[in-house]
Design a protein that fits this description.
mainly alpha; Lysozyme; 479 residues; two-stranded antiparallel ribbon; Membrane-bound Lytic Murein Transglycosylase D, Chain A; 6 strands
């Protein structure tokens, strides 16, 4: 009799658990509030573009054809331990339910495009995350960051499928300069994102919600919120006014996107067009090589080579990258190698003129700008379709670049600044306490605790990595 009662009790527990795990249809269909406007992507401390200067990002030089094409902007909804990290808990609450409903209704077209585009990159991205011991659900951060658009660029100049700012990208070894922007490389950007997410997961005591919020707003913003509200519960933090609306909605949007993507048909996405996974060969080119030549040798088009190599900013491989790994159509590597060998090295590349953009001030005129940039008023007028005496205040003009830029040196200087400002870590040893580390690193206990999401009296586990410094050093950046 006892065994029968035990079996019945176990069966009841299993049924109860299964029921709790699935949201009710009424909860999923409930529209919590009207459609939210696109979140503000502004980040704390971002530099604003000033009129009257060349667009000073070291990557802001183009050929005329590239200037006409331009970068894609975000038109859709804006949205390190060795042990494997825990899965992202797919919580269901009113906020998550709201975004599920939104994606099923007013955001349906956007989400359907995201799902379709995702089929091209999900296998590769998930494989990278798994190799780094990270949960699959994190791949949907790329979905809400960019909709899996490799050339996506926000108004704040976050770039690529994982929307890296240049400082963070360089911190995680992505090369960003005049010739190449590896934030757009789906493989390298995903690897960098995995490293960053592992660090965030560690910083926030293995809490994926705080790690995701930190990815969106910056870790310091979340640490300050934790200190301000004296809680490390994301849902409690999101009730206050300190975090921006975009960050408060980032986690529920991520959860909603992941929940739907795991079972699209259940939520009404039954006819999604799939995009084939990109297949390619990789070859090493020793020097600067025209992509037009690569296209001819592989029997394809220039545009196809550009699409296979989204990190390349211009018409050729980088001049200061002697062993650049170039992607070419699958099955063409032998044909390419044989063809390239038969062509003299000096014919692998042809020089082209470079241009930048300049936003004119009220005091500017074409003659002054021509003198300033070593051009002529007639050339500037012709390039921009203007009359020589026409008013140009507020206009963004194309400016020919006469003097070469040492992009390698600029990249080194920027990297040195970033490395100086990056967080420094300490691995806890037996006997360490927050107070002893506070004295050692000259950081208040309260700040150490906030940086690492710890209680003041918590016992430190040997082997745990702690953030012990976040201040910018004075560095000699001269090349």
């Amino acid at each position: 009799m006892k065994s029968w009662l035990l079996a019945i009790a176990l069966l009841a527990a299993m049924i109860g658990a299964a029921t709790a795990a699935e949201p009710t249809q009424s909860l999923l269909n409930e529209l919590v509030q009207p459609h939210l406007s696109a979140p503000d992507k502004a980040s704390e401390g971002l530099p604003q573009r000033q009129a009257g200067t060349l667009h000073d990002d070291v990557s802001a030089l183009f050929t005329l054809e590239e200037l006409k094409d331009g970068d894609q902007t975000l038109a859709d909804l804006t949205l390190p331990d060795d042990e494997p990290a825990a899965d992202v808990p797919l919580a269901m609450n009113d906020k998550v339910s709201h975004f599920i409903t939104f994606f099923q209704t007013r955001g349906r077209g956007t989400y359907a495009r995201w799902l379709s585009r995702s089929t091209r990159y999900l296998p590769m991205m998930k494989e990278i995350l798994r190799k780094e011991g990270l949960p699959d659900e994190l791949v949907y951060m790329a979905m809400i960051e960019s909709g899996f658009q490799l050339h996506a660029r926000s108004w704040a100049n976050a770039v690529g499928p994982w929307q890296f700012m240049s400082a963070t990208g360089r911190r995680y070894s992505l090369r960003i300069d005049q010739w190449i922007d590896e934030r757009k490389d789906p493989v390298k950007a995903t690897m960098a994102a995995a490293m960053y997410l592992k660090d965030l997961y560690s910083m926030f005591n293995n809490d994926w919600y705080l790690a995701a919020a930190g990815y969106n707003a910056g870790e310091n913003k979340i640490f300050r919120a934790i200190d301000k509200y004296d809680t490390s519960d994301f849902w409690e933090l999101s009730k206050g006014s300190y975090l921006k609306r975009e960050t408060k909605e980032y986690v529920p949007k991520l959860l909603a996107a992941a929940i739907i993507a795991k079972d699209p048909a259940r939520y009404g996405f039954t006819e999604i067009a799939t995009v084939p996974v990109v297949e390619y060969d990789t070859v090493t080119v020793k020097g600067r090589t025209d992509l037009e030549l690569v296209a001819r040798l592989t029997g394809t088009t220039y545009q196809s080579i550009k699409e296979l190599n989204p990190a390349l900013r211009h018409w050729c491989t980088p001049p200061n990258y002697p062993d650049y790994e170039l992607k070419i159509p699958k099955g063409t590597s032998v044909r390419f190698a044989q063809g390239l060998t038969s062509i003299p090295a000096e014919q692998h590349f042809s020089e082209k003129n470079l241009y930048s953009r300049y936003t004119a001030t009220r005091k500017d005129n074409l003659k002054q700008l021509a003198r300033r940039f070593g051009s002529s008023a007639g050339e500037l007028a012709e390039l921009n379709g203007l009359g020589i005496k026409e008013r140009i205040a507020g206009r963004t003009l194309i400016i020919p670049v006469k003097q070469p830029v040492n992009f390698a040196q600029e990249g080194r200087r920027e990297t040195a600044k970033i490395e100086a400002a990056a967080a420094q870590y300490y691995t806890v040893r037996k006997g360490d306490t927050l107070h002893s580390l506070s004295r050692r690193f000259k950081v208040p206990v309260k700040v150490l605790a906030a940086w690492n999401n710890l209680k003041h009296a918590v016992a430190l586990k040997p082997g745990k990595r702690l953030v012990v410094a976040k201040t910018e050093k004075n560095v000699n950046t001269k090349g």
